[in-house]
Amino acid sequence: MLASHFSTCAEQLRLEGAAISYEGEAPSSEELESQLPRDLERGTTGMGPHLHDVRLAATGRDLRSFGSQGEQRTAVLALVLAEAAALFRATGDRPLVLLDDVLSELDGERRHALAEMIAADGQSILTATASSALPVEPAVSIVVTPGIAQRSL
User: Fold this and answer.
1) Among 57, 78, 96, 122, which one has the highest count of C-beta atoms within 10 angstroms of its own C-beta?
2) pLDDT score recorded for residue 153
3) Residue 56 class from Cβ within 10 Å (0-12 exposed, 13-18 middle, 19+ buried)?
């Protein structure tokens, strides 16, 4: 489910041919149970999905090694938005999405695409270092200066 949401979000953000895959073999129940006494003794889990990687790719290229900084940023944004979509689908509640200074490495086209996506999908908080970085007029704008947070009209 996350993979299809990721591909859709990445495509909307103009990252063509994006795919996510899990790199690793999921342990069987028997393997996990045989490891349990040792895990309890050590106080940590010695096998499982937390020890494997997730591969983000675009047009077959591993973005970790062969993606530009903009492509990597776009893939991470697509992953965050895909997780929000998956949570909504599973719970029926839209999660609050917090995006801190994500616009700095996106071109204008991707900024607009992101703005359209978050405007359509529930609550989002997007921070930027300057209001000029925002591609559209926000529903609510709060300007923060040292010691002061003020709603902009």
Assistant:
1) 78
2) 65
3) buried
**In Å, what is the CA distance from 101 to each residue of 26, 64, 78, 151?**
35, 20, 15, 19
User: What is the C-alpha separation between 97 and 38, in angstroms, rounded?
Assistant: 38
pTM over 0.85: no
Sorted by where each begins, the domain ranges of the chain are: 2-152
pLDDT band (50, 70, 90) for residue 26:
confident
Q: CB under 8 Å to 70, separation ≥6 — which residues?
A: 105, 106, 107, 110
Residue recorded with tokens 């200066």? 145
CATH topology of domain 2-152: Rossmann fold (3.40.50)
Rg (alpha carbons) of the chain, rounded to whole number: 19
Q: In the numeric block, which tokens belong to residue 146?
A: 């040292």
Q: How far apart are the first and last CA of the chain?
A: 40
How far is CA 59 from each of CA 42, 53, 63, 115, 120, rounded to the nearest angstrom? Answer: 42, 19, 10, 24, 27
